[in-house]
Amino acid sequence: MTLSDNLIGASYVYLLEPEVRFLEAAVEHLIPTDELGPGARDAGVVVYIDRQLASSWGVHGRMYRGGPWMEGTPQQGYQSRFTPQEVYRIAISEIDQHCKTAFGRPFAQLAGDRQLRLLKQLEKDEIALPSLSSKFFFDLLWRNTDEGYFADPLYGGNRDKVGWKLLGFPGLPTSEYRRLVTSSEPYHAEPVSVLDVQTGKVPVDAEGFPKHVIIKRDR
Amino acid sequence: MSNTKLKSVDVVVVGSGVVGSIMSMELASAGLSVVCLERGRSFDVNTDFYKPNVYDELKFDRHSDIFQNLARDTITFRNNNAQTALPMREMGAFKPGEMVGGTAVHWGGNARRFLPHDFEMRSRIEQRYGKSFIPEDCNLQDWGITWDEVEPYYDQFEHIFGVGGKSGNLNGEIQAGGNPHEGSRSREYPNPPTRPSYEGRLFADAASSLGYVPFQGPTAAMTQDYRNLYRVQMLECARGGFCSSHVCAQGAKANPLTSVHPALARQPTFELRPLCNVLRVNKDSTGKKATGVTYIDARGNEVEQPGSIVVLGAYCFSNTRLLLLSGIGIPYDPRTGKGVVGRNYSYQQGGSVHVFFDDREFNPFIGGGQLNTSIDEFNGDVIDRGPLGFIGCAYVNTSARGAAPIKGKVVPPGTPRWGGEWKKAVAHNYRRNMAITIHGTCLSYQHNYLDLDPTYKDAYGLPLLRMTFDWNDNELRMMKYLDERCTEIGRALNGSGLGGKNKGTHFGITGYQSTHNVGGAVMGSNPWTSVVNKYMQSWDVSNLFVVGGSAFPQNPANGPTETIGMLACWAADAIKENYVRNPGSLV
Questions:
Q1: What are B363-416's pLDDT values in tens digits?
Q2: How far is A91 from chain B (nearest CA, A)?
Q3: Contact between chains at B507 and A74 (C-beta distance less than 8 A)
């Protein structure tokens, strides 16, 4: 990766360069940039995924990991022998291999509409990967993309709180909620994150609640 | 690893949650020496749960270290006997806790009593609809207790957990503003009711227009500063959301850690031992008397703690599993229907109808699920289910959800799962929908049960608990009926569209539903169909009490926590008033 196309100044702990390229392309289809605001790529979702894979979750630190491993029914949930770290590493490499065989280049270098079609096929389990179900990988990727776009920016995604601005979610509550809880007036405020308070960007009152900056709206 | 045998105490309590903490408090304050063993670690509410870090949805909802550590111990699950049960590898449908204070530390705070009907469900159904109305494979049974017996203990629990509400039936007189269908209560709630949210007022208007009687659901998030029965102070709720799955930084949501443990720590005859994992209850040579328990302590030593009385006060799964691992009671066999331990495992039905608006905008992030406006016309035995052809009931409500951004997004039916259209739908609808939520009964069936898994083991080499469970036609019919009624209420709200959550006909352990797992060591008046008698005392081992959600013969509609707390007060009273004076069977 050259510095010039690393627009958000991201750094990576676990992911390898081809994996970053794959994920930047994929997550941008899942939550695209449009007139409502930045998509998952510019929200830092790939950084989020990288940090999650490097965390205890990435190695299933608090999950049951004993065998034997069987596929199970959809009702039985996660039954893969692989940890999330392994799922991402293996699936991306096998999908890229599939793309090179079928189209001569890795996923990240294909045209946008081709990428979109491939993602839909992965979701429907229509691409037979050698080592795991493509739907299983897609579902994990979508879950993590959603988390990364809407979790506190503390975790590397939701940069500039774009996910919260999209929803109109003000983040941390204020002491005013006691009064506002019965109100029928829509309440809009600049979102405040855990990261904002931890880094001293937003001050808190004696109870520890941040003070919101109200957004005035024409109604 | 060394083996140690400690000095005997009066009472050994396993688990430090709702049951463990309240029973320890009641028994220690009666002068008994009590040791409470907890597998999780100690938490300090002032330093472990502080602002701003408590407002971290990802951490507390998905990756929390206050949930059971599945790397050490989990359950296995299958829908039916023909399948192979596989381990629950990650947390999904339910979230048992692992900490001092237990699962209830991260409960939502809905503090509803059951209805008088719920304790005598089989008798009342047979009386009203006839025996043949009950499905043949359904193990519906009475609890062995009646409303009048346990009402004082509900009252006691409400004064420990500072429940806020308005009575609807005070000493037999129906009260305006409360729930007219609730059982007669001996006193008013200790705290005032909540005031309805905007969504709650809309729901109340729509429900009233259809002839229902809305009321504010009882809550254990303090509606004013409150000093409880144990002289512990709790602060008024700030309505900031982050309730269920989270620990309240305000100390406003009553839970064992904030409402009981501070008082318990002051009891001179009480000792709490965290990080101690109980392996089994020990018995004497007759097999009819418990001599104490054996546990692995924090340093890995195997320790024997003798005691005159043993209380299993852990989660539904742990209580049942400890009985099975200790060889107490006959394990249930679904092929013959014989045996009791693991029998009558049940869960909770849930669903919702979402009403979407183009012209209304809410503040869904303010409040929490326990601030809700409810109706009870579908609960208990209010409606005639004869022509409807199902057994069961539900309460229906609209809450100030405290909708968090990862899990609280709702989109209309037909919206793609991801992509640009999904993004637009999420942006438009997050603040423009409200939910009418159904919380329904789940009966017990012959083929739904708990036993020990033949293959998978925990970190100590002991077999995992195996859950065999699926939804049944009766519950699916009930949910279809309730979905239709809630859709009618939804239509009366005149939104731009309706949507619902359809979770399919088979139960799955993925996707959060509720941590309302019950049964496995049920209470009753017949030792052939129950593990404990009406005082929660083992039929087989008279100095063993098994208390908690494990005792529910089936699951009523209202959430279990309030009744688990009530049963703790009830069982503690039976021990200190009767058992201690005259040890032996209480019935």
A1: 999 999 899 999 999 999 999 999 999 999 999 999 998 999 999 999 999 999
A2: 20
A3: no
Percent of chain B with pLDDT over 90: 95
- Strand positions, DSSP E, B172-301: 173-174, 215-216, 226-227, 233-234, 270-273, 277-283, 290-296
Q: pLDDT tens for residues B86-97?
A: 999 999 999 999
d(CA B264, CA B244): 24
Radius of gyration of chain B (CA): 23
Check whether residue A137 and residue A177 sit in a common domain. no
Q: What percent of chain B has pLDDT over 70?
A: 99
Q: Judge if A204 and A100 occupy the same domain.
A: no
Average pLDDT along chain B: 96
Residues of B in contact with A143 (CB under 8 A): none
Under DSSP, is residue A208 helix (H, G, I), strand (E, B) or coil? coil
Domain count, chain A: 2
Cβ–Cβ below 8 Å for A36 and B423: yes
* C-alpha span between B551 and B564 (Å, rounded): 9
Structural domain boundaries, residue A183: 170-219
Matching residue, tokens 């004696």: A206
Let me know whether A158 and A174 are in one domain: no
CA distances from B384 to B119, B186, B380, B393 (A): 18, 28, 10, 11
Same domain? For A129 and A214 the reply is: no
- Do both A39 and A121 map to the same domain? yes
CB B542 within 8 A of CB B583: yes
Looking up tokens 């101690």, which residue turns up?
A: B276
Using CA atoms, how far apart are residues B416 and A32, in angstroms rounded to an integer?
13
A111 and A53 in one domain?
Answer: yes
- Percent of residues, chain A, with pLDDT higher than 90: 93
pLDDT digits (tens, 9 = 90+) for B164-195: 999 999 999 999 999 999 999 999 999 999 99
Q: Contact, A106 vs A92, CB < 8 A?
A: no
- The residue among A118, A137, A162 that closes a domain is A162
Q: Collect all residues with Cβ–Cβ distance below 8 Å to B548 and sequence separation of at least 6.
A: B15, B18, B19, B312, B313, B314, B315, B316, B319, B564, B567, B568
Of A123, A140, A162, the last residue of a domain is A162
Q: Which of B46, B50, B55, B203 to mutate to test the interface with A (most CBs of A within 10 A)?
A: B55
ipTM: 0.96
**Above 80 in pLDDT, residue B503?**
no
Residues of B in contact with A65 (CB under 8 A): 71, 89
Can you tell me the distance from the alpha carbon of B108 to that of B514, in angstroms, rounded to the nearest whole number?
10
Running DSSP on this structure, what letter comes out for residue B214?
A: -
pLDDT tens column, B319-373:
999 999 999 999 999 999 999 999 999 999 999 999 999 999 999 999 998 999 9
Residues A24 and A90 in one domain: yes
pLDDT in tens, B53-95: 999 999 999 998 899 999 999 999 999 999 999 999 999 999 9
Is B516 catalytic? The answer is: yes
Q: What confidence score (pLDDT) does residue A5 get?
A: 62
- Flag whether residue B1 sits within 8 Å of chain A, measured between CB atoms: no
Given the structure tokens 């995924």, which residue do they identify?
A49
Whether chain A has a CB inside 8 Å of the CB on B304: the answer is no
B192 preceded by a cis bond (ω within 30 of 0): no
Provide, as residue numbers in chain B, all residues whose Cβ is less than 8 Å from the Cβ of A32: 419-420, 423
Q: In this structure, are A73 and A175 located in the same domain?
A: no
Taking a C-beta distance cutoff of 8 angstroms, is the pair A120, A112 a contact? no
Cβ distance A142 to B418 less than 8 Å, yes or no, reads yes
User: Mutating which of A27, A49, A176, A177 best tests the B interface, going by the most B Cβ atoms within 10 A?
Assistant: A177
B249 or B494: which carries more pLDDT confidence?
B494
